[in-house]
Amino acid sequence: MNIKFLQANNGDSILLTFKDDSDTCRNILIDGGTGPTYFNGSTKLSGPLKKVIEDLKTRPAESIDLLILTHIDDDHIGGLLSWFSKDKEAARLVKKVWFNSGKLIAEYLKIAENRDLAVTLMPEGAVNTGIPQAINFEDYIEKAGIWERKIIVAGQKIKILDLEFDILSPNNTKLEKLLKEWKKEDPELDTAGKEHDYNKSVKDHILDDNFKEDTKFPNGSSIAFILSYKKKKMLFLADAHPGVIVGSLRNLAYSEDKRLKVDFMKVSHHGSSGNTSPELLDLVSTKKYIISTNGQQHNHPNKQLLARIIDKCEDCELLFNYEQRMKVIFSKEDHTDYPNFVINPVTEIMM
Question: What values do phi and psi take at 91, rounded to 5?
């Protein structure tokens, strides 16, 4: 399996390519990053998502067998909206979509739909305001026949494409909060980590660590999972809340004495300190932690979170998909105090 961590600005976009048991090449796309991850309107340049999609089109036997939209934040859905609106062949390239839409959540919970959760897709050539012909993203994927309208929730074990997904998030409580309380115009959306904390040493961060869990409703609705491929296990956490992940891991009988062993952990919410708790780290055994962000909008990752990881795993490898970001976080003092942790850039991992 080849796993590419696309440079999605402050967001996530991950492409998994592998062969199933019949030797058929398969592709899974997890999120699409921000709009410019597909196409940058101001520079007129193709982004990394468009490049991998155009490359995929040169292999007619292949498609995106599964597209997972983890949640509706712009830094995860923006690139997909840009792709679907600009590429008339997009729906033909995608075979199946996982997406917990507002309408689907309302049906599942049997409560009123929150229309603020509707995600619109602007047709090619349309202006950005007053578009009567804008179509709802969920209607688009449903009419294209690529959406099963199946809710994805914690506790499910899904076998597909010779892979196994143990769904860890979201749970019903987080979906209900999203549906009832999220407002599109909320000025507090995703504001955690605006001021960086890099001037403080790793040692001081460890001594002063006071964990406070993220409370943002879209993040709590994230689809997060353990992915099993042959003898490998990977942990993809999107922007999920750690309390939900901890609860799901304990329901799967993992504990501090029987930890989940994974080849790597895609750290939740781009390394925000409120999305990876000490308790979560105590339940997972790995050396590799993936950080996906350029840090330019919210100053992620938080050094407090990275110090928390170093404290729990002194010989950890912190992997950044933006090399320039990793270079500004740690001081010589940090590496002297904690000589066993390493930082490295990552564009892809071969499993």
Answer: -65, -30
Identify the residue whose tokens are 């002063």: 208
Tell me the mean pLDDT in the region 130-146. 82
Distance (Å, whole) CA 196 – CA 327? 14
- Quick: pLDDT tens for 217-275: 999 999 999 999 999 999 999 999 999 999 999 999 999 999 999 999 999 999 999 99
pLDDT digits (tens, 9 = 90+) for 53-66: 999 999 999 999 99
Q: What is the CB-side half-sphere exposure of residue 13 using CA atoms within 13 A? A: 30
> Residue 82: how many CB atoms within 10 A of its CB?
25
Instruction: For residue 336, count other CB atoms closer than 10 A to its CB.
Output: 10
CA distance 57 to 344: 31
Do residues 168 and 260 lie in contact, with contact meaning Cβ atoms separated by under 8 Å? Answer: no
DSSP classification of residue 64: B
- What torsion do the CA atoms of 24, 30, 35, 40 make, to the nearest 10 degrees? -40
Q: How far apart are CA 226 and CA 65, in angstroms?
A: 18
Distances (CA, A) of 122 to 68, 78, 117: 20, 12, 16
Q: What is the per-residue pLDDT for 242?
A: 98
Hey, how many other C-beta atoms are within 10 angstroms of the C-beta on 319?
22
